[in-house]
Request: fold
Amino acid sequence: MSSASPRPSPTRYSMPGAPSRRRPQPRNGSGLSRGAARPVAHRHRAPGPGTARLPAAPFPAARFPAPRFPAPLAQLPAARGAVKAQGQPGVVVPDRSRVMASAGSPGPGGVPAVPVASGHSIPVLGLGTSHHGGYSHGAVVHALQKCGIRHIDTAKRYGCESLLQRAIRESGVKREDLWITTKLWHSDYGYENTKKACLESCERLGVEYLDLYLIHWPDAQVPGKSNREVRAETWRAMEELYEKGVCKSIGVSNFLISHLEQLKEDCVITPHVNQVEYHPFQRPQELVDYCRSRDIVFEGYCPLAKGEALTHPAVIQLAKKYSRTPAQICIRWSIQNGIVTIPKSTKAERIEENCKVFDFTIAEDDVEILNGMHDGRHVSWDPTSIV
Ligand SMILES: NC(=O)c1ccc[n+]([C@@H]2O[C@H](COP(=O)([O-])OP(=O)(O)OC[C@H]3O[C@@H](n4cnc5c(N)ncnc54)[C@H](OP(=O)(O)O)[C@@H]3O)[C@@H](O)[C@H]2O)c1
Reply:
């Protein structure tokens, strides 16, 4: 790790895994307790009586406008260690001896990263994993070794954390070059359970820290307690995991504005990321705008609408127009809309295809065509009824 670096500015993006000067160093995950020095930025509320006065929230959205691609894309460096693969335009492979100096150009195949309020940067393109046949060891190793993937999304719920440990080790990619997200399942919600579950996820993944830990779903299902109460208790444990450095960034998933507003009243640290369904049929722009205004990175899941978007005539037509595949159109569209995205495939050739999205641009009027396809449909969960 290099020496501490300041919060990235809009034009000076840091690499995944870069340290923040506000953060304590990760520990091995035991002996967590409250009361350690807290990072002072991006807090929800003023400190209570007897608490040291903290600087006002920096309203980072104003200082750090949400990335708008393709223009800022050209200013983003590739994820650390990425370098163009020989003979494979648009594909990158790891090379720790070089950091791809692509500022001023996205670089063919380079995966750019966007800043997170924690002081770290998340690669805009990651690889999803899931249960029910959503995991392939060979595909993950291929993604890491041959496609420049440095960001992997998983969850306790998916049951593949230990499998990922093996794939990461086999890939030879170093821990510090990876962005690993996992999620807390609702059976582990609550203050003590959350801390235990996080450490167990770390153990299964074979890591000492997580780059991002998310509350998977806003419904807590704890008898005798409101969802709001349980989410707040759970989030306090997440804050502590963040303060201790076990989680470099913390966030939520499937949270709506109402859930985020409650958390703002009940807790201290604003979630760094909200991971929500996002594809041409599901573009929750009000939530995207809300997150941007509070410096919460919006991460979109199911970018292909689980494959449903790939057969839509408008997507097929645009794929022909740009000589790309429907999957590349959907992924590029998410990225151009400033959304971090995590398509899943269990097939090496599809992962390669899904990664070749940094060497073309969808024209603004075509982006508008895709934007206009929103019909509110969910292909995953719909959290609107969760209070
Ligand atoms: N936070 C949450 O609650 C939540 C919920 C759902 C998903 N997620 C995350 O988001 C990730 C992605 O979501 P998802 O897997 O549900 O949906 P998705 O990425 O929209 O679509 C995946 C489907 O598309 C297929 N596919 C992938 N690339 C393709 C290509 N180039 N051409 C044709 N078909 C292609 C895959 O099949 P093959 O595997 O056979 O290639 C799979 O059936 C998940 O893996 C998970 O990490 C999070």
Summary: The radius of gyration is 20 Å. Residues 128-130, 134, 153, 216, 253-254, 275, 301-307, 310, 325, 327, 342-347, 350, 353-354, 380-381 surround NAP (CB under 6 Å).
